[in-house]
Amino acid sequence: NAGVTQTPKFQVLKTGQSMTLQCAQDMNHNSMYWYRQDPGMGLRLIYYSASEGTTDKGEVPNGYNVSRLNKREFSLRLESAAPSQTSVYFCASRAGDGTEAFFGQGTRLTVV
Amino acid sequence: GEDVEQSLFLSVREGDSSVINCTYTDSSSTYLYWYKQEPGAGLQLLTYIFSNMDMKQDQRLTVLLNKKDKHLSLRIADTQTGDSAIYFCAGIPNTGGFKTIFGAGTRLFVKA
């Protein structure tokens, strides 16, 4: 099983550019998440989708939008990238309440 | 809301035991997790403990939970160089079953 797949693995953007980070899971999980990881700050939740058709803001949603395209796919969009969005982004999925979260390999994004 | 705190660094010699500590604020967390992140990779679940348990042992890993002090620890016996990684403590508060709250992560250095 592939688990959670994120694309791209690396990306460099100029300030003001837009892009979409893709995430897909093949485990039939209901919940999907986007986190960002910054040094010394652990993982901070950007947005999550508890089930297909729903999305909710996490801890740091400003500057991002998400789409739960179907049960498998959950994308994260940066409409106008800013240097403060330089980070490593992780997508995760879970089957349901309290179950283990499975993570993708991460997307390292640099905004210059 | 839930807050999870960890020390940022720990250095041990190969063969010694490592103890990584974590404190959390929401005593209603039903599940508490330890995740391991190796360089350039996503997070992988290492072990977990339910809030009604005091201790869980899994081969070289021992998790201790002190609910009164809201303290969680992970002990790695006979630490190996392959254990060098970042370890994240995480909890799922009862109020938000879809959101996993992560600590900042403890970077474990194992010296040969």
Can you walk through the features of this model?
The complex is a heterodimer of chains A (112) and B (112). Chain A is an all-beta fold. Chain A contains no helices and eleven strands. In chain A, strands 2, 4, 5, 6, 9, 10 and 11 form a seven-stranded mixed β-sheet that branches. Chain A has a four-stranded antiparallel β-sheet with strand order 1-3-8-7, with no helix packed on it. Chain A is globular and about 35 Å long. The model of chain A has no long low-confidence stretch (mean pLDDT 93). With 112 residues, chain B is mainly beta. Helices cover 0% and strands 55% of the residues of chain B. Chain B is built from no helices and eleven strands. In chain B, the strands form two sheets. In chain B, strands 2, 4, 5, 9, 10 and 11 form a six-stranded mixed β-sheet that branches. Chain A binds chain B through residues 4, 31, 33, 35, 40-43, 45, 48, 50, 56, 58, 90, 92, 94, 97-98, 100-106, and chain B through 4, 6, 8, 30-31, 33, 40-45, 48, 88, 92, 97-100, 102-105.
Over all CA atoms, what is the radius of gyration of chain A? Answer: 13 Å
What's the total helix number of chain B?
0
Unreliable residue stretches of chain A: none
The largest sheet of chain A, given as strand count, sense and whether it forms a barrel, is: 7 strands, mixed
Give helix and strand order of chain B, one letter per element, not per position: EEEEEEEEEEE
What's the shape of chain B? globular
Topology:
The complex is a heterodimer of chains A (112) and B (112).
Chain A: E1 4-7, E2 10-13, E3 19-25, E4 31-38, E5 42-49, E6 56-57, E7 64-68, E8 74-78, E9 87-94, E10 102-103, E11 107-111
Chain B: E1 4-6, E2 9-13, E3 18-24, E4 31-37, E5 43-50, E6 55-58, E7 61-66, E8 71-76, E9 85-92, E10 101-102, E11 106-111
